[in-house]
Design brief:
heterodimer, A: alpha/beta, Rossmann fold, 4-stranded antiparallel β-sheet, B: alpha+beta, 2 domains, 6-stranded mixed barrel, two-stranded antiparallel ribbon, about 45% helix, elongated
Chain lengths: ~220, ~475
């Protein structure tokens, strides 16, 4: 089961040495519960900032964010951490795997923070690695995995706490075509199987066309294709 | 995760642990050595007895000298059970040990020392002539008899035997140089002092040579019967020398049981003083050794006893001033170790700050998957704590080993000087404090980097990913 996303009048400004830099300016957006949205746009359009705000990595400055009926505006640091743990699964362009841990330990990590028992986390990690076709690589460290395999491990990790919202930041940005297709198909399968809402940032127009909803951004505002 | 990080950055971790370990080594070694030296110095000052010991003489007090460590005693004044009970009942008095001295004549039978043991000891002093032995029967009163090569057997001489409660001898200012003390209530065993060795022409190093030899002690008694010429008889006992001691309880070269010295006194007291030729003791006790509850209470107890009219002596002023100096030395040595630990903790802080910079991506990932600030903080604090704990354990063990090595060297020197060595105890409190201190200091040093890691904005950390 997924979550519906509602953004109203969302603005975000960074302070830089050269002065204030507005990256989002009064953005309105709706994504349906269980929807699949692709955010596209050139560099500096505000895609990653939008993803950060949706994922609770930052607190919104102006405007309102509602995820599955939960207003993110008033949440404290710990509340946002709890929101990220329980509701969100992140998938990064550079995979975000910890090199010191094995594939299975990377997957388990999210469960550790959630307070799941060690036996339960281990079983869950192996189940997810099996689901992404990497059961035989559970004890391998990320450095011994290919790019596509690393991203599949990252997807498995994102699913550990059964998130209702999957946020993927350029998940195929570092992969070759074959691996990209495999990862995207996996994400779509996960979304179909788990019913979660998927929001993906991508530069790839072809990938974006696979989404139910495309959200082109330009300088922090909705653009028209 | 912190453990994995330590393993991964093994070289840096080892260097950081080494810095903490070196500091803990220095701190432990210095504090242990200082503590042992303090104990040794104070033990020397108290002659092996408690620091809070007070000698009460059977003599009148001079109230003007109560603040003097070793005042001149006044005229004799009897010390009896009534006075002993009064002192025992005083506030701040822990225990009262009786001392009964008796004058005896001493005969040293041949051989005066064990020749085999003597042969294994350091050479005799040059002042003792090395001549061959001469049979006792041919000697006269003025020529020492030679029975062991290089050793003179003294002629009979008057001395004082000091009777003490041997059951509680460990509480008295007596240091065993060789052998042991007589068993409690023994009438056939005696310990001798260094004065006896000097009389024999021996030094402290040769103390073992007299252990096992015999000595005859005779308490004198004058018989003055009306119309009869005065006669003298002695009550002779043959005793085995079982040990050599350094003792400051009362003047006298023989330490015996209370029963032995009382028997000698009773024998002498039953006779007459032969017009002053025999000293008849009137005081039941020659002295009392009083132990105060605490060194701080010594002065008050001395004042209370002075009010009873008895002269006291105690090294309280000397002990107090030496303690002050030793405390300063301990503080200085401890401070040196502490400075080393602070420097080591700065090393930990530096290593962790570098780790925080290097691991921004890792921190970002942790936060993205739901780690709270305190979860991140805990990872870095755990890492700091492990480094401090391991460094503390290794350093404390090395420090104690260093102190053992130093004490071995010092003991070698003391033995060469004929002095009793120091015994390094296991200062569990110091060892425990060093390990805990290193860990706590490391945690303190890790607090800033851990806080910085925890406060890293999740978004900023994510950008690093």
């Amino acid at each position: 089961m997924g979550v519906a996303i509602t953004l109203r009048g969302l603005s975000h400004t960074y302070r830089t040495a050269e002065g204030p830099l507005t990256v989002l300016g009064g953005l309105d957006l709706d994504v349906a519960d269980g929807g699949y949205a692709a955010i596209t746009g050139p560099s500096g359009a505000g895609k990653t900032t939008l993803l950060s705000l949706l994922g609770g990595l930052e607190q919104p400055q102006i405007g309102r964010i509602e995820i599955g009926g939960q207003d993110l505006n008033g949440l404290s640091g710990d509340d946002l951490a709890a929101y990220r743990r329980a509701t969100v699964g992140f998938i990064f362009q550079h995979f975000g795997l910890l090199e010191t841990l094995t594939a299975a330990q990377n997957v388990e990590l999210a469960g550790t923070l959630n307070g799941t028992s060690p036996a339960e986390r281990r079983a869950r990690a192996l189940e997810l690695l099996h689901a992404v076709g990497l059961a035989d690589r559970a004890k391998h460290r990320p450095s011994r995995l290919s790019g596509g395999e690393r991203q599949r491990v990252a997807i498995a990790r994102a699913l550990v706490n059964e998130p209702r919202l999957l946020l993927a930041d350029e998940p195929t940005g570092n992969l070759d075509d074959d691996a990209s297709v495999m990862v995207i198909e996996l994400l779509e399968k996960v979304r179909a199987d788990h019913g979660c809402t998927l929001v993906m940032v991508t530069h790839n127009r072809e990938l974006a066309t696979r989404a139910d909803q495309r959200i082109p951004l330009d300088r922090g505002e909705r653009a028209f294709e | 995760m912190a453990a994995t990080s330590i393993r991964r950055r093994f070289g840096r971790s080892v260097l950081t642990v080494a810095a903490v370990a070196l500091a803990a080594t220095l701190l432990t070694a210095l504090v242990t050595i200082a503590g042992t030296a303090r104990t040794k110095v104070l033990s020397e000052l108290s002659k092996g007895g408690p620091l809070s010991g007070i000698n009460v003489a059977a003599a009148e007090a001079d109230p003007t000298q109560v603040d003097t460590d070793d005042p001149r005693p006044g005229p004799p004044k009897d010390l009896d059970d009534r006075v002993r009970a009064k002192i025992t009942a005083m506030a701040d008095v822990k225990s009262v040990l009786p001392i009964v001295a008796a004058v005896v004549n001493v005969i040293v039978p041949e051989p005066p020392a064990n020749a085999e043991v003597l042969a294994r000891q350091p050479p005799l002093p040059d002042t003792v002539a090395t001549t061959t032995s001469t049979p006792q029967s041919t000697t006269n009163a003025t020529t020492p008899r030679q029975t062991v090569a290089g050793l003179k057997t003294p002629d009979p001489f008057p001395e004082t035997m000091v009777g003490i409660d041997l059951d509680r001898a460990s509480l008295m200012p007596i240091t065993i140089l060789s052998g042991r003390l007589p068993v409690p209530k023994s009438l056939t065993e005696v310990a001798v002092t260094q004065g006896y060795l000097t009389r024999m022409g021996l030094t402290k190093k040769q103390a073992a040579a007299v252990v096992g030899t015999e000595v005859q002690l005779g308490a004198p008694r004058a018989f003055t019967d009306t119309g009869q010429p005065r006669r003298f008889r002695s009550r002779w006992v043959r005793a085995t020398i079982v040990g050599v001691v350094a003792q400051e309880t009362a003047p006298g070269q023989f330490i015996v049981s209370l029963e032995q010295s009382r028997a000698a006194r009773n024998w002498t007291s039953a006779g007459s003083d032969a017009e002053g030729r025999v000293q008849i003791p009137t005081s039941p006790y020659s002295g009392l050794f009083v132990i105060a509850n605490d060194i701080e209470k010594v002065n008050q107890v001395r004042r209370d006893i002075t009010e009873l009219g008895y002269s006291t002596s105690a090294p309280e002023n000397l002990v107090a001033s030496v303690q002050r100096y030793l405390r300063v030395v301990e503080i200085v040595l401890g401070a040196i170790g502490a400075i080393a630990l602070v420097i080591a903790s700065m090393g930990i802080a530096n290593a962790l700050l570098a780790a925080v910079r290097e691991r921004r991506r890792e921190i970002g990932v942790l936060k993205a998957i739901g780690a709270r600030d305190r979860d991140v903080q805990r990872v870095f604090l755990f890492e700091a704590g492990v480094l401090g704990l391991v460094g503390g354990i290794v350093g404390t063990a090395l420090g104690y080993a260093t102190a053992l090595g130093v004490s071995a060297v010092v003991n070698g020197y003391l033995a060469a000087q004929g002095l009793k060595g120091v015994r390094l105890g296991l200062p569990l409190l110091v060892l425990f404090a060093a390990v805990c201190g290193s860990t706590l200091l490391a945690l303190g040093a890790g607090a800033l980097p851990a806080r910085r890691a925890a406060r890293m904005p999740a978004r900023e950390a994510m950008e690093a990913a």
